[in-house]
Structures are given as structure tokens and as C-alpha cells.
From TrEMBL:
UniProt keyword Transmembrane present: no
Organism ancestry: Bacteria, Bacillati, Bacillota, Clostridia, Lachnospirales
UniProt binding sites for S-adenosyl-L-methionine: 82, 87, 133-134, 152
Database matches in Pfam families: GidB (PF02527)
Annotated signal sequence range: none
InterPro entries: rRNA_ssu_MeTfrase_G, SAM-dependent_MTases_sf
Name of encoding gene: rsmG
Enzyme Commission number(s): 2.1.1.-
Name of the protein: Ribosomal RNA small subunit methyltransferase G
A cellular component annotation (GO) from this entry: cytosol
Subcellular location: Cytoplasm
Top enzyme category: transferase
């Protein structure tokens, strides 16, 4: 528990014993389920803490330029697109229990795992959606519905923006977690941002605590509604980025 709390403290996050216990249980469920389902290639406890749990909360590095903590604490609606094993959505929910969280993934057995985790961790106000982002973003109950969309999915920023911005309310935000400096990717995605109604509001590059692991958080603000034609049909955003 000390290693867990110490690394969150490096982000100025003081975990309670209850929150730390939830992370440990989450880790145990992740590793046990990973034996029969491909959830993560990272299994060492310290690596999971740093590269999954702490990394999921690294969005607080946007402070002081953008007060994401107060927005999350005030009950923001958040959708995690392509959540996989629950990152960053579930760690965000553990630390900021007031958020209204939706977890979206295209693989049903991962969604079942996420339901089990949230039940065991007693996380409430979480909605689980099995489906592709290209389809879900055209669902009237989800489109233009969230204060924040977050994603750690491994995809081109232009493609991710087409998946994610349609979910976001006007004047809301898409938070993209990137594993390295993303200046070139941002520059090549400017056309996509413009077409989708967004623009880059803030970019923060940093290293995870006690490591040389580089990360970049890109904050994209949605300035106007995304045209109804986006996202394009399943598979097209990845094959033909805007």
C-alpha cells in the first residue's frame, strides 16, 4: 500500500485507505482475470500501479492551467471510449467518486469484467456500454451528452478525435492520453479538429513519478456541434483518418 500511496502522492493525490484498498482489489481481479482473458501485458504490481493506475490520474498534471479536479469533484459526466480493462475510467472513479462514468468497449467479455470490478469495488453511478464508438456516437442518448470524453486507446489522434468528440457536449472536453510527445500528431490532426468542432486547448508533457516514462495529455475543447456525418461508418476513421 505504501508504494501505491507514495506514487499517487507525487501527483498531489492523497489516497484514503479505502481508495487504496479498492486499487489493490482491482489489481488482484485484473491479474486473476488476465489468466483467461487478454486484458493487459503489464502484470507486475509496481508496473500496474505506475503505468495503469497512476497514469490514469496523470490528467491532474493539467493543473494549474486547467482545474480538472474541481470539475470532476462537481459531478462531471465522463465517458471512457475504448476502456479495455477500465483505464483510465475506473481509476478516475475511485479517486473522484462524484463523476458520472460511462465505460464503452467493443468486446463484451471485457464489459462483463468491468461490471464485476465495479460491483466488487462498490462503485456506483457507472454505465456499461458494449459497442463500437462509431455506432454508439450516433445513439441520441449518448451523442453530445458528456462533459468529458477520456481515452487511452492506441490510435492516431485524428482517428481518436472522430471517435470521441461526437460524445462531448459543446464547451466540453476530450482528454487524450498519449505515451510520448505528440506535437507532430497534433499538427497532422488540425484538419480533423476543425471538421469535428474542436480545437486544442492545452498540452502537457511530463514523466510519471520516479521514472523516465514520458507521457502527454492533450486537452481538446469542443467549440461547436460535430456534424452528423461523424463518426463515419465502423472501420473508416482508422483506415482513412480525416
Amino acid at each position: 500500500m505504501y508504494f501505491l500511496k507514495k506514487n499517487f502522492k507525487a501527483l498531489n493525490i492523497d489516497l484514503t485507505d479505502d481508495q487504496a484498498g479498492k486499487f489493490i482489489l482491482y489489481y488482484q481481479m485484473l491479474i486473476e482475470t488476465n489468466k483467461v482473458m487478454n486484458l493487459t501485458s503489464i502484470t507486475d504490481y509496481k508496473d500496474v500501479v505506475l503505468k495503469h493506475f497512476v497514469d490514469s490520474l496523470s490528467c491532474v498534471e493539467l493543473l494549474p492551467d486547467f482545474d480538472i479536479i474541481s470539475k470532476f469533484n462537481s459531478g462531471a459526466s465522463v465517458i471512457d471510449v475504448g476502456t479495455g480493462a477500465g483505464f483510465p475510467g475506473i481509476p478516475l472513479k475511485i479517486v473522484f467518486p462524484e463523476i458520472k462514468l460511462t465505460l464503452l468497449d467493443s468486446l463484451n467479455k471485457r464489459v462483463v469484467f468491468l461490471k464485476d470490478v465495479c460491483k466488487e469495488l462498490k462503485l456506483s453511478d457507472v454505465i456499461f456500454v458494449h459497442g463500437r464508438a462509431e455506432d454508439a456516437a450516433h445513439d441520441k442518448s449518448m451523442r453530445d451528452s458528456f462533459n468529458f470524453c477520456v481515452s487511452r486507446a492506441v490510435a492516431n489522434l485524428s482517428t481518436l478525435s472522430e471517435y470521441c468528440l461526437p460524445f462531448v457536449k459543446t464547451h466540453g472536453y476530450f482528454l487524450s492520453y498519449k505515451s510520448e510527445k505528440a506535437e507532430q500528431e497534433i499538427n497532422s490532426s488540425k484538419k480533423a479538429f476543425s471538421l469535428l468542432g474542436g480545437s486544442v486547448s492545452l498540452v502537457k508533457s511530463f514523466s510519471l513519478p520516479d521514472s523516465d516514462i514520458s507521457r502527454t495529455i492533450i486537452l481538446i475543447k469542443k467549440n461547436m456541434g460535430t456534424p452528423k456525418i461523424y463518426p463515419r461508418k465502423a472501420g473508416t476513421p482508422s483506415k482513412k483518418p480525416l
